[in-house]
Structure formats: C-alpha cells, structure tokens
Amino acid sequence: MGSKIKLRTFSSVDDKRIRLTNSNAARLWSADVGTSWSKIRIGCRIGIEDTGAGLTSTPRFAFGICSGTSNIYMDATTTHWCGILTNAATWSRFTGPTFYQIAAGGLVVAKRIGSTLTTGSGIGDYSNWHDCAAATRKALFLDITKGSPNFTFNLFYEHGAFSSVDVSLATLLAQLPLSSPAITDHESSSNVTLAIDEATNGYFNAVNFAWDRTSPAIEISDMAVVKLA
Predict the structure, then answer these.
(1) Structure confidence at residue 3 (pLDDT)
(2) Which run of H or of E encompasses 223?
(3) For the whole model, what pTM was predicted?
(4) Residue 83 CB-density burial (10 A; 0-12 exposed, 13-18 middle, 19+ buried)
(5) Per residue in 56-108, pLDDT tens?
(6) C-alpha–C-alpha distance, residues 21 and 215, integer Å
(7) What is the pLDDT of residue 4?
(8) In the chain, what are the domains?
(9) Distance between CA atoms of 44 and 191, rounded to whole angstroms?
(10) How far apart are CA 209 and CA 133, in angstroms?
(11) Is residue 143 classed as helix, strand or coil in its secondary structure?
C-alpha cells in the first residue's frame, strides 16, 4: 500500500510530507549509519488530519525500523520490524489548538516477524498529535539501543501539556543529534526493552512507518536518522 507526497505551505515555506492513508512507507538509511550502529535515533515532524471527532477501534500507527524495504510493516508479511505501536482503543480530540491525545498505556514497543506481531511494555503516555493543516508540527524521536537480547527504546514527544508552538525544521535538525533534546512541551519517556534478534531475523537498515486508517491521514515531514553510537 503506497503512501503519497503532500505539499503544504506555511509562511511561504513549502513542506513536502509523506501522507499515510491506510498505507506504509520505508526508506533505507545511508551507508554511514549502516548496520553496525549501537544506538540510533529516528526523528521527524508529525501531524494528523482533524476529523472533528475522536478516534475509536484502536487505530494503529507504527513507527520504527526494518530490514530492507520489501515486506515491511503492514504488508502481508514482514521481514523484520521493531519500534513503537499505538495501542489505545480511543484517541481523544481537543481544541485550542486542535489535537488528538493518546492516553497512558496507549503506546507500546513492538516487533513484527513474518505475520507475528509481538507487543511489549508501554512507552510514554498522554502523547499529543496536532492538526496537520495548521502550523503546529511536533517532533517525534525514537531512540533505539542495541543489546543482547534486549534492545532499549526511548521516546521523545509532546507530552501531556499542549502547545500551539510549531517545531521548525531548524529546531528539529538542531535537537536531533543531542544526547538530551529540549523542545517546548516535549519530553523523554522512560526506557523500555524488548528482545530483538537481528542475526536470526534480519539486520535493520531502513526506517519504516505505517498507518491503518484511510481517514484521518497522518503526515510526516523531514524524516531523519542519526547514529548516536
């Protein structure tokens, strides 16, 4: 299921985004990152369309890394994927500014191999997802640290308190490589672990995200990968 490119313009600056509507996408990262990393961060600016009502029936957004760009998350089978997955039955809608909020326990770490999805512990809580038609783009960073057998995951996101402040591209790029990023109303989650076996199931070399709803769309800007160690 292919995703589309969406062009939005704020303050005369174009923002080309990957638009997810019951679709997925994967992008190989550079050879400089390769597969020998011990810690990486994937990051982006993210928004969601406003439908005018809360979301129900457990919407699934997957944000993580995969082995290759064929057989990725949300395909019939997946070579090897791990990351975070939304797990909340409902997403509450708020206004002033308009955003959706995923309550405590609504994000989990997960992996998918073949057709088997394994979910782990919750990561982060009260995550906010703002209207993609407004200049209220928010940062979403996922740190992944290799271990044997457990990988460690940490999420940096807009948490609890909401802000109408738009995260600029300059801010995103400045904060992305920092050991302790700092953006208004964003914070880091606690660390969560999940057993991962690259040698058996495939080495990670690509970013992979997916969204299982036709409406509302999720839009992702400025996807980037940083090798932290």
Answers:
(1) 82
(2) strand 218-227
(3) 0.94
(4) buried
(5) 999 999 999 999 999 999 999 999 999 999 999 999 999 989 999 998 789 99
(6) 7
(7) 80
(8) 4-227 (2.60.120.200)
(9) 20
(10) 20
(11) strand
